[in-house]
Specification:
The protein contains three helices and no strands. It has about 80 residues and is mostly helical. The protein has one domain. The termini are far apart.
Length: about 80
């Protein structure tokens, strides 16, 4: 007999304070910068060297990025 599961979803409306909005915007901006830099690194590696970088290998570089760029230390992994 096949089991059926019911999936529940919840929606929450966020009402951050202006200070929290600024903090969230900063996190989103930093994450966007990291994503775009990682994407460019993948493109360059493929176009110049024919090497395919994995997300795991790039993710492993994040602690070193946080050492060099202190502004990224506040962003949770």
């Amino acid at each position: 007999m096949e089991q059926q599961f019911v999936r529940k979803t919840f929606k929450y409306k966020l009402t951050p304070t202006p200070q929290q909005e600024q903090a969230l915007a900063l996190v989103v901006r930093r994450c966007r910068e990291l994503y775009n830099a990682a994407l460019q690194e993948r493109r360059d590696a493929w176009q110049k060297c024919g090497v395919s970088l994995t997300a795991a290998s790039q993710s492993a570089q994040l602690p070193a990025v946080k050492e060099v760029r202190p502004d990224y230390r506040a962003i949770h992994s």
